Amino acid sequence: MLSELHTKPAWYYEFRVTLGAAALLPLLGLPAFALLQWLFIVSDGQTVEAYNLVRAFELLLPLTVGLAATQLMSVERDAGMAELRLSYPEDPWRLPLVRTGVALLIGAVAIVLGLVAFRWVFDPIPLGTLVEPALGPTLFLLGLALLVGNLTGNYWLAAALIMGYWFFEVQTQGDVTKSFFLFQYAWPVEEVDYVLNRRLLAGVGGLFLLANAWLSARRKRGKGVRWRDNG
User: Fold this and answer.
1) What CA–CA distance (Å, rounded) separates 38 from 56?
2) Rounded to 5 degrees, what angle do the CA atoms 198, 203, 207 make?
3) What's the pLDDT tens digit per position in 16-63?
4) pTM for this one?
5) Residue 46: what are its φ and ψ, rounded to 5°?
């Protein structure tokens, strides 16, 4: 058994460790919403306005991806294997870069599942119209989820923080965060430029990803075996 594990490629380990129920179950958020809309509205011959569908996509996609990505940086600590992983003689940047790639892949899968479900249940909506408002908030919560999961080392605490932030934004509707409001399409805040808002969210999300990678690499250098180029 041990020899079999050693012969598996590195990507096999990463996907096996990261793509568990905590990462996959949240991906059902948008399809579940579409199914409920079909059961209670569409099946009765009623229609759902395009604006409401775009707003639902903007609200649900960031939460879906944020919750799915929350455990990616804490999975070894949740399983009590953090010290073992830190002892691996690997590049300090490898783990955060791979987990960031997995998180972006999860985001892409969530988008595809949502688009398929919405196209099946509702009248076709241009893909750009449906997805564009949700991209900035999704990158923001994805980056925050990875960073918070890295800092806390606990899936449940990190997931609670991500859900709490999302709920705070829904309740305050931008009164506090203003130009950094996640849902500027759903509930436009006066005097906040929409394009600037989307760019700020995407930019801060990117900074969260960089901070997460730096923190992980720093922890590896401080406690793990230093990686050396054998070439």
Assistant:
1) 14
2) 150
3) 778 888 888 999 999 999 999 999 888 787 888 889 999 999 999 999
4) 0.87
5) -85, 160
- Contact predicate 149/70, CB 8 Å: yes
CA distance 49 to 117: 16
Cβ atoms of 140 and 62 within 8 Å: the answer is yes
Position 163 scores a pLDDT of 98
Structure tokens at 159: 């997931």
Q: How many CB atoms lie within 10 A of CB 175?
A: 11
What tokens appear for 93 in the block?
Answer: 């940047």
pLDDT tens digits, 170-192: 999 999 999 999 999 999 999 99
Cα separation, 185 vs 231, in Å, equals 52
**Residues 56, 118: contact at Cβ < 8 Å?**
no
Name the H helices within the chain. Answer: 2-7, 10-18, 21-24, 29-40, 50-69, 75-78, 82-86, 94-121, 127-152, 155-172, 194-223
Distance CA 195, CA 199 (A): 6
- In which element (H, E) is residue 152 found? helix 127-152
d(CA 55, CA 58): 5
